[in-house]
Design goal:
Oligomer: heterodimer
CATH architecture of one domain in chain A: 3-Layer(aba) Sandwich
Number of strands of chain A: 8
Organism (chain B): Enhydra lutris kenyoni (northern sea otter)
CATH topology of one domain in chain A: Alpha/beta knot
Helix content of chain B: 40-55%
Strand content of chain B: 5-15%
Number of strands of chain B: 11
Keywords (chain B): Hydrolase, Magnesium, Manganese, Metal-binding, Mitochondrion, Nuclease, Transit peptide, tRNA processing, Zinc
Strand content of chain A: 5-15%
Order of helices and strands of chain A: HHHHHHHEHEHEHEEHEHEHHEHH
Number of helices of chain B: 24
Cofactor (chain B): Mn(2+); Mg(2+)
Catalytic activity (chain B): Endonucleolytic cleavage of RNA, removing 5'-extranucleotides from tRNA precursor
CATH class of one domain in chain B: Mainly Alpha
Protein name (chain B): Mitochondrial ribonuclease P catalytic subunit
CATH class of one domain in chain A: Alpha Beta
CATH superfamily of one domain in chain B: Tetratricopeptide repeat domain
Distance between the termini of chain A: 109 Å
Strand order of the largest sheet of chain B: 4-3-2-5-6
Largest interface: A-B, 58 and 58 residues
CATH topology of one domain in chain B: Serine Threonine Protein Phosphatase 5, Tetratricopeptide repeat
Radius of gyration of chain A: 36 Å
Chain lengths: 429, 584
């Protein structure tokens, strides 16, 4: 390379581009392959050396080395071997599609798209089975987020372990100082005692508790992902119920043995599944209980729940509905001619956004709270805060209601909704 | 006083919890707190009611504004056009309706956080270093700056100087993402030689690329002499994904550019075979190329494209319509003459006077649609979702016993058309007006309409029942499916009245073909109330007698097209037409 041995030609900016593109044809690359390494070394020196780089507003020079300054990287890029580690597979022309999609994901990752770094064979197969490009991308993004979370947890774990070790070492130093005898009343077996106590309570609920039914007849309305979410919510609800002062007696009705639902539940609970203090049955709720004591809870119901009744059996559809199949559970209740009710969300809350379908664990908490306290204000605190902007003051409203009742001389003991009075009359018949 | 105090105390913790940022001083007594809360709520209610009033006011103002705008628009054309403009399914009608909505907020896009002035000329390495020091962000500087450049379409040279700087810092290696963004700039600025350079580099370094780069390379290569290689890239895409219509479009454009007609058609067939809907650009390219081809086979294929537009209810854009016109007029010896026109309400073309195809369905289509509505919309796999089997039986018997109707009325929809008037009053007015014309009426409603209420007067509902047959569904049933069924059951002459666009019911139909049939039937049978001047003068919008679709009689073509200035929603049809006929 004849650096510095040329006469720089100064041109106006406007004509530089055309000339440069001409220069390409005038000066074809005559650098032999052998010398490319040398070339790149020189290039680096050239770039890092303090040659007064053409600075603007000076006129641009379009001499060969300057040209090389802009285009030099192409040479190294072309000449360097594929050091980019793209899963070395057999270089046969008809490679299997799995490898192809693996490479595609790798290229996406290089581009900075949200795809996982490592992917297992099974996940690859799932990705391949995705019908459209967008569904592939969605699935890969899900894997990417999962991977990120896993990594973050790993880091947290290591940090914790480090701090713990440090603490233990310090404690060791301390304990050698004062080796006093201390008197305690209990051994530290709290967790176990809690579990046992909850077990007793659960057994009691199995005998004397109010039934609460989860209707499991929705497995054919759900995609695998939704089903997984549902099972997670069920686990959460069962946990809430277990910890409560006065738990429900849970029923999982319409649970088909070896159906997708059952399999997922057994997978998540492991060997605890057979020791759970609840009733799982393939029978329907209408076979187990009298029809007139059943109330199906669904957000589509036209009837608003006014009070929690301790002599009724509430049914919650265990159904995560992301495809917005409105009216599914209402249709089920209509078919079996069951009473339906929905939570009085609009009466107590200034609803803002979001669906009025609550998750199963939220439902569970609300029902437990109603059962124990009977106050709607308390119970509806379990509705996610993002969904409503504030509470409506009901005390005024109910005060007026009581007054009206007094006027109409039908006032009996406690101000309850008209619906309730109605049912009481029916009970007397 | 005492009780108040107690309730105050009881609700105190709740107050505390729900308003943690009230900033209460400890000096406050519970009582005042409680009272304040109550008043606060009451005031809020008042405020809400005020708000609604103001909303109505703004609505009224908006209406006035819209009306004035409307009138001004109407000045340009004849008065007749104004009335046809307000048609429910005419292009741009939905846009107009939304402009009357006061709640529309124009969300301005947040300004792009641009901390660095993008260079306009190539920089040297020190200048890049300095820029990097100025950059405060957690992203990789080079990636960030090149994506900014791609956004603002910087010149290729600036990007190249950046790549050179990165390579110098990195042993001559440039990352894949930088290469792809650089490639984007090269393709955008049509720097074909640069595209080919990047293509060589990518081939040397990577075994396989991803769809983004493939798309860019195909787009860049088809204009060069090495356009055949774009086809190889298309094959590479096919190995993993379905190529996009854009990929096919670029390849077809490239093939046509290099006079390889058969290849272009093959690619087009392959695209259709994959159930993709071609870009209108692609179809336009075939027509543009056709000007210079004098070949019957090619002409027939272009006519096939027009039939494809017809069968799939696609409408060309304005420029495409011009291309079609030019191609027809360039045909030798056939003497085609094209003009841009509108169609009169009678269904006659203003240009040549020919009558357009009727909007009515053929008997086979009619039966087919009836079956589909019954199966997918009303039943839908679970009769309990929209109604109950008992109710459905009751309804079917009811429809069988009655004579076929002339008009089926969606009672609730009609009654709520005018928010200020009483529901039952409006319904009665509509029914009486139609009954005077000696029409067989059916009013569909829900049972709650029969219970005495301030908005539903019993005596008025009795009068309605005297003048029309009525069917009241359960309060939790849907009434629209019944409306559709009753109308279809009565026969082709029967119309229905509702303002509902029925989009949710259209969506229940499984395939696109049935949906199009439904839409055609809906256009021909739906009456919507436009306004009510007096109690006995309610005007309905006219029903178009013709079908808006590409159509031919052999020696004439009529092609509806989309204007560039009008935003058409998917459930609307264009109003402008291209009329082509042979001179005789």
């Amino acid at each position: 390379m004849r650096e510095g041995s040329y006469m720089p030609i100064f041109l106006k900016m406007s004509s530089s581009i055309t000339l440069r593109s001409c220069a390409r044809y005038l000066l074809p690359f005559t650098i032999p392959r052998k010398r490319s390494i040398l070339c790149s070394a020189i290039l680096q020196r050239y770039m890092s050396s303090k040659i007064p780089g053409v600075s603007y507003p000076k006129k641009e020079s379009t001499s060969p080395p300057e040209q090389l300054g802009l285009d030099g990287w192409k040479i190294t890029m072309k000449s360097s071997v594929q050091e980019e580690d793209v899963s070395p597979v057999s270089s046969s022309k008809d490679e299997d599609p799995l490898a192809a999609i693996r490479e595609l994901i790798e290229m996406w990752r290089l581009l900075g798209k949200e795809v996982p770094e490592h992917i297992s064979e099974e996940e690859l197969k799932t990705a391949m089975e995705c019908v459209s490009k967008s569904s592939k991308k969605k699935y890969l993004k899900y894997l990417y987020i999962k991977e990120k979370k896993k990594k973050a947890n790993q880091i947290k774990k290591e940090m914790k372990a480090a701090t713990r070790e440090k603490a233990i070492r310090e404690q060791l130093l301390e304990t050698t100082k004062d080796d006093k005898q201390q008197n305690f009343l209990f051994l530290r077996l709290w967790d176990r005692n809690m579990d046992i106590a909850m077990g007793w309570k659960g057994a009691q609920a199995m005998q004397f508790g109010q039934p609460l039914v989860f209707d499991m007849d929705y497995d054919n309305y759900m995609k695998p992902k939704e089903l997984k979410n549902t099972v997670s919510q069920l686990l959460e609800s069962e946990g809430c119920n277990r910890r409560d002062v006065d738990p429900f007696h849970l029923y999982f009705c319409n649970l088909k043995i070896d159906g997708a639902y059952h399999k997922e539940l057994v997978k998540r609970y492991g060997e605890k599944w057979d020791k759970l203090l609840l009733t799982a049955t393939e029978k329907s709720h209408v076979d187990l209980f009298p029809k007139d004591s059943l109330i199906y809870l669904t957000a589509d119901s036209p009837n608003v729940m006014t009070t929690f009744k301790h002599d009724k059996i509430y049914i919650v559809g265990s159904f995560v509905d992301k495809a917005m199949q409105t009216g599914t559970s209402l249709a089920k209740a209509k078919r079996l001619k069951l009473a339906t009710e929905c939570l009085p969300l609009d009466r107590y809350l200034q609803w803002d956004t979001g669906t009025k379908n609550l998750t199963l664990d939220q439902m569970m908490r609300i029902l437990l709270c109603l059962k124990n306290t009977g106050s709607w204000e308390e119970a509806l605190k379990f509705v996610p805060r993002r969904k409503y902007s504030g509470c409506l003051e009901i005390s005024q409203h109910s005060q007026e209601f009581v007054n009206r009742l007094k006027k109409s001389k039908t006032f009996n003991s406690s101000p309850k909704g008209s619906l309730n009075i109605h049912t009481q009359k029916r009970w007397l018949k | 006083m005492m009780t108040l105090c107690f309730t105050g105390i009881r609700s105190f913790p709740k107050l505390w919890k729900s308003n943690p940022y009230l900033g209460l001083s400890l000096g406050h007594s519970y009582l005042s707190l409680f009272l304040k809360d109550c008043y606060g709520i009451r005031e809020q209610r008042k405020w809400f009611s005020l708000k609604t009033v103001s909303a109505q006011n703004t609505k009224a103002v908006n209406l006035l504004v819209a009306k004035s705008r409307y009138v001004r628009k109407g000045d340009e054309g004849s008065n007749k056009e104004v009335s046809s403009d307000s048609h429910l399914f005419a292009a741009g009608a939905a846009r107009k309706r939304s402009q009357m909505n006061p709640l529309r907020e124009d969300h301005a896009l947040p300004p792009v956080r641009n901390t660095i002035q993008l260079p306009t000329k190539p920089l040297n390495s020190e200048e890049w270093d300095k820029l990097k020091e100025d950059f405060k962000g957690d992203a990789n500087f080079a990636s960030w700056i090149i994506s900014q450049m791609a956004h603002s379409r910087s010149s290729v040279d600036v990007a190249k100087s950046l790549l050179a700087w990165v390579a110098a810092k990195n042993n001559g290696i440039v990352g894949y993402d930088l290469l792809v963004r650089y490639l984007y700039l090269c393709v955008f600025h049509k720097q074909t030689s640069e595209v080919i350079d990047v293509y060589e580099i990518m081939k040397a370094r990577y075994k396989r690329l991803e769809p983004g780069a493939y798309t860019l390379l195909i787009q860049g290569l088809v204009h060069s002499d090495r356009w055949k290689e774009a086809l190889l890239l298309l094959e590479d895409v096919k190995k993993v994904l379905v190529p996009s219509v854009r990929n096919y479009n670029d390849c077809i454009e490239g093939a046509l550019l290099h006079q390889d007609v058969s290849l272009a058609w093959n690619l087009y067939q392959e695209l259709l075979g994959r159930d993709l809907i071609p870009m209108l650009k692609t179809l336009k390219a075939f027509f543009d190329f056709g000007k210079n081809v004098k070949d019957d086979q090619y002409s027939n294929k272009l006519l096939d494209i027009l039939l494809y537009l017809r069968n799939n209810h696609l409408y060309p854009e304005e420029s495409f319509a011009h291309s079609i016109k030019t191609w027809f007029e360039s045909a030798p010896g056939e003497q085609w003459k094209g003009q841009f026109t509108t169609i009169k309400e009678s269904g006659q073309c203003s240009g040549c006077g020919k009558t357009m195809e009727s909007i009515h369905l053929s008997p086979e289509e009619y039966e087919f649609l009836k079956g589909k509505i019954m199966r997918d919309v009303i039943d839908g796999g679970d009769q309990y979702k929209k109604t109950t089997p008992q109710e459905l039986k009751r309804f079917q018997n009811f429809v069988k016993c009655c004579p076929p109707f002339d008009i089926v009325i969606d009672g609730l929809n009609v009654a709520k058309t005018f928010p200020k008037a009483r529901e039952s009053q409006v319904l009665l007015d509509v029914v009486s007006q139609l009954a005077k014309q000696n029409l067989q009426l059916l009013v569909l409603g829900r049972k709650h309409m029969l219970t005495q209420h301030s908005r539903w007067r019993k005596d008025e509902m009795k009068k309605v029942q005297k003048q029309a047959s009525c069917f009241f569904a359960d309060n939790i049933s849907e009434d629209d499916p019944f409306l559709l069924y009753a109308t279809l059951q009565s026969g082709n002459h029967c119309k229905f009245i509702t303002k509902d666009l029925m989009r949710d019911h259209k969506a229940c139909l499984r395939d696109a073909k049935t949906q199009r049939l439904f839409f055609k039937w809906q256009q021909g049978h739906q009456l919507a109330i436009i306004n009510r001047l007096t109690r006995s003068k309610i005007t309905f919008q006219h029903i178009p007698s013709y079908n808006t679709v590409v159509q031919t009689t052999g020696d004439s073509w009529h092609i509806p097209y989309d204007e560039d200035t009008v935003e058409r929603y998917s459930y609307e049809v264009p109003t402008k037409w291209l009329c082509l006929h042979r001179k005789t």
